[in-house]
Specification:
- This protein is α/β, with parallel strands linked by helices.
- The protein folds into two domains: 54 residues; 184 residues, Rossmann fold, CATH 3.40.50.
- Helices cover 32% and strands 23% of the residues.
- Helix 4 links the parallel strand 6 and strand 7.
- The longest helix is centred in the middle third of the chain and has 13 residues.
Length: 251
């Protein structure tokens, strides 16, 4: 599984942080080398990830109690584009969603907050650490299962028609000179070049009982040909690919 050049957790590191470092193969040290990506629990109790010194100094965290994510959760509703894309507004009971490319988990947390059972997969250990730490403290922790794993491995392992919905969020290409939020800057630096998106979509379609939802930039072409339906958001587009049984009742 791809890892940054060097990733460390800056001591002190105790309890659940130490156990997670052992699980994810992250070294605990007293001093962070200049080239390292650094996790540290600060004096306010927040877990933050910092970029190497050679990069522009950035620090990110997953905070569902304040800031943009907290506002998004407070205003969440079944009428929002992502909720409609997973068909949450049409169902008597919330679907089981596999977020195959979870990143910092904003979509996974919103769907779990709205009642979905969510499996959030993230292949990058540092992002998985941040997300798992936040998820276990969230009021919807029992509905959010964070897994440090490559999406292709998980989709292959769970077998056909194992979840209702598979959500894919391929990283958008840089659009002109527009400023990218610092969270996305960090994700880009960590992720490196993308893998085969065609194979990912194929595996997702096999694993989903109902549909595959692909999050796209409004100006990007569909990832897997013409979708069954498209749901437009404020800054993104959701391309929905329905399985045959679901297509007849979707409209």
């Amino acid at each position: 599984m791809p890892q940054p050049t060097e990733a460390v957790f800056l001591a002190p590191c105790e309890g659940r942080d130490a156990r997670r470092c052992a699980e994810l193969g992250i070294r605990i040290c007293d001093d962070a080398p200049p080239s390292s990506w650094t996790l540290r629990r600060d004096e306010d109790g927040a877990l933050r990830l910092r970029t190497p010194q050679r990069e522009a100094p950035l620090a990110i965290e997953v905070d569902f109690e304040s800031g943009d994510l907290a506002r998004r959760l407070r205003t969440a509703s079944k009428s929002q584009p992502i909720a409609r894309a997973v068909s949450l507004h049409r169902r008597q009971s919330p679907p089981c969603v596999l977020d195959a490319t979870a990143g910092l988990g904003r979509d996974a947390m919103l769907l779990a907050h709205l009642g979905c059972s969510v499996i959030a997969c993230e292949r990058i250990s540092l992002l998985a650490f941040l997300l798992a730490d936040a998820a276990e403290r969230a009021p919807f922790a029992d509905r959010l299962d964070v897994r440090h794993a490559d999406a292709m491995d998980v989709l292959t392992a769970i077998g056909p028609s194992s979840v209702d919905v598979v959500l894919l969020d391929p990283m958008f290409p840089t659009q002109g000179r527009a400023q990218v939020k610092k969270e996305m800057q960090v994700c880009r630096l960590l992720a490196g070049p993308p893998g085969s998106q065609e194979v990912l979509v194929h595996l997702a379609f096999a694993a989903a009982r109902d549909r595959v939802v692909v999050k796209r930039h409004p100006h990007e072409q569909p990832l897997a040909g013409p979708p069954s339906l498209t749901i437009a958001g404020e800054r993104v587009r959701f391309d929905v690919y329905l399985k045959p049984k679901a297509a007849s009742s979707a409209q």
